[in-house]
């Protein structure tokens, strides 16, 4: 992979001037290369990784990984159904997989019930979906290569009277 892309992938806040120093290029050449990557769709967007364990939000989302077995549609294969599935707003990622299932779908909802409702009312009944298995994420330790520090827990015992 291109050196500029590797640097930005690790930290998108790295400035063109910093990248120029790291690569031995000029800042203007780095800016031009980044603009070309953006124009060509190589760089899709810049993203912030949030450790949601530190965000005190009672309505934080529930995330589930859903294994989906499908029968590919004639002449369009897996792509047709994958495209229909990833259009749902609840779906944050969709991958074609090898192995015992065909698609891995990452779904987010406000609670377990919204995720299970999505699976039972929208995903499972779709034509050519042969079966689903849902795995709820209980805790994240590392995501997209970033280790997520855990919030410190109070180790004192709760006392009730």
**Broad CATH class of the largest domain:** Alpha Beta
How helix-rich are the residues, as a percent range?
A: 25-40%
Element pattern in H and E: HHHEHEEHEEE
Compute the separation of the termini in Å. Answer: 61 Å
Number of helices: 5
DSSP strand content: 15-25%
> The CATH topology of the largest domain is what?
Alpha-Beta Plaits
The second-level CATH architecture of the largest domain is 2-Layer Sandwich
What's this model, at a glance?
By secondary structure, the protein is α+β, with helices and mostly antiparallel strands. It has helices spanning 3-10, 16-23, 27-39, 77-86, 112-123; strands at residues 62-70, 91-96, 103-109, 129-136, 142-143, 146-147. The chain has a four-stranded antiparallel β-sheet. A two-stranded antiparallel sheet has the order 5-6.
Textual characterization of the structure:
The structure is a single chain. With 161 residues, the chain is an alpha+beta fold. It folds into two domains: 3-39; 57-139, Lrp/AsnC effector binding domain/regulation of amino acid metabolism (RAM) domain (Alpha-Beta Plaits). It has five helices and six strands, in the order αααβαββαβββ. The strands form two sheets. A four-stranded antiparallel beta sheet has the order 2-3-1-4. The protein has a two-stranded antiparallel sheet with strand order 5-6. Helix 2 packs across helix 3 (27-39). The longest helix has 13 residues, at 27-39. The chain is flat, with a radius of gyration of 21 Å. It starts with a helix and ends in a 14-residue tail after the last strand.
